[in-house]
Amino acid sequence: MERYHDCWILYRALIDRLFHLRALADNNDFLIFDDWSFMRQYEYRHRVRSDPEFKDTLNPEVFRDTHEERERYQEIKKRSPKWKRPHAETIAKKMGCEFLYKYSYDYASTHVHPMANDGDEDFRRLTGLIQYDQPLDRRVILNNSCLTLVLLIQEGLNAGTLHWRTLVYDFLKHFMDSLRSGSKEYGITFIKIVEMKEEMGLCQKRSSG
Length: 209
Fold this sequence. Notes:
- This protein has 209 residues and is mainly α.
- The chain has a domain of 53 residues.
- It is built from 9 helices and no strands.
- Helix 1 packs across helix 5 and helix 4 runs antiparallel to helix 5.
- The longest helix is centred in the N-terminal third of the chain and has 24 residues.
- The termini are far apart.
- The relative contact order is 0.12.
């Protein structure tokens, strides 16, 4: 696997989003998170535009705000939404999945933050000067990424009320079966999802019963 370290970086991003989504769902903070995100991104753009050091090199079209964005920012700023990013270890404990922090998020962080042996793996790969006695099986990072993606999708579905969730749950189960046994049943479920789009509105909520 040539981009092993990059895989861990992307994997950590998945875990981070899983923890964020669980925290948002637990506290029903989706709307305030949306406002907070918009406000922070707007202020980042404004900071760049206002910096005289980059005045002559700035592409104004990239950082231009629309009238609607300016109005929304003023409205949100009046309310000054208070939101803080969740602490990864705390959320993992609440989920009963502390191992996701210890052996996924925290370990993957060693591929995100500088370490003394940064570049060693790339050196081996590019030069071929150092060979392993046996090729390392690194499929675990791919399997773990798939598992985390399934958890992430399930968390999103659990927080929603859409009518078609059950069919997606079936697809995820069959996808997991594929990882375990090579089953191809997920393909049949995927076809059902495609056909479902023609039969019902994707925004249709499930019945209260």
